[in-house]
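Hey, resending since the last one bounced:
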Amino acid sequence: MNETVLDYFIKALVLFTAVPVHECAHAWVAEKMGDDTGRKQGRITLNPFAHLTLWGSLMMILVGFGWGKPVSVDPRNFKNPKKGMVLTSLAGPASNFIMAFLAMIVYKVLAITGVVKDNSTMQMVAMVFLYVTIINISLAVFNFLPIPPLDGSKIFNAVLPEKWYFTIMRYENIIFIVLIILVYSGLLDAPLGFLQGKVIDIMDFLTRWVDYIMIAVTAGVSV
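The structure tokens again:
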């Protein structure tokens, strides 16, 4: 029962942090590139209720796969439409990678301190940050898939001829349904798990300095 409650708590935490940051990042970068559609719609905010949808939120809480309200973007407002679209699309997953990086730092600080002090509460909180790290990485990796309507498709489509782009977008809703089926069937588990594992390894390497600092600090304190 405790594990179930913790699982729901972590999903809710990610829902009310990762999703708003992700969507806000899209709107903020779009404005920097010349399109203020997101600002006019009130999307440059970390208020989760400006970004969440009922069904996307329920799916995230219940099964761990959900979505936020897409940020409207008008490429015609960009000074450079292709560059603007690529950077705006990259902003969402990039924000999740940044959150994962920061969460992993907090996790390592709490985990090492908790082990040294034999503090089970601190270790449990550390695990929450570990799960937040993993889920943010999962969201970022998933969104990088070049499948409509994910961010990766917008990055990929930016380099396609317009004829191909509009042909693909015509079937966006059908492709999205197929994507959901693939997710729930488990057919994407292996490739996504592989990619997520590699990113976690990279994050661990980039935050290795935290391990060294904390080990040195705790060793000094224990002495």
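The radius of gyration is 19 Å.

Sorry for the duplicate.
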